[in-house]
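Late entry, evening session. Most of the bench is empty. Finally got around to the prediction I had been postponing all week. Sequence below, unchanged from the version circulated by S.P.
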Amino acid sequence: MRLGWTFTQVNEQIQMYDIMVKKGCHVDASIPQSPRKPETKAADIQSGTHIHADKAYSSQKHRAVLKSCSINNGIQDKVAKNSPLMHPQLQRNNLIAKIRYVVERTFDIQARWFNAKILRYRSLAKTHAQYTLLAMAYNLKRLPNSSSIGD
């Protein structure tokens, strides 16, 4: 089966149920720097975009890169050694967590429904294809009366 044919079938199903995506969010785990992904790709992101990440990515370097590219910093603050977070920082972390929860919840459901707990491929193209197909399967499963699709 060709991948293009699959996307065509999915688009037809989405149109049949008159579903429209009104707003979305760019989710890319490779945006923040990590030991496995040493280059920060902030220059590829449009200015004014909001980036949300957990405390693991909290660093002066990330904040400086985001600021220099006019990208809104949504990286949660991390406790420094012997320096607890102040009340405004805790409030900010709480607000960021409420936004991130929506995306993280989706990944958690995909992990449970489709056993998608680990990446199955190494290349970026194959991993992108895996998560595109996972997202399609997730959306199709959530459709009303999805059990009748394909009958």
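Two things to note before I forget:
Residues 87-114 form the longest helix (28 residues).
The chain has one domain: 3-141.
Will write this up properly tomorrow.
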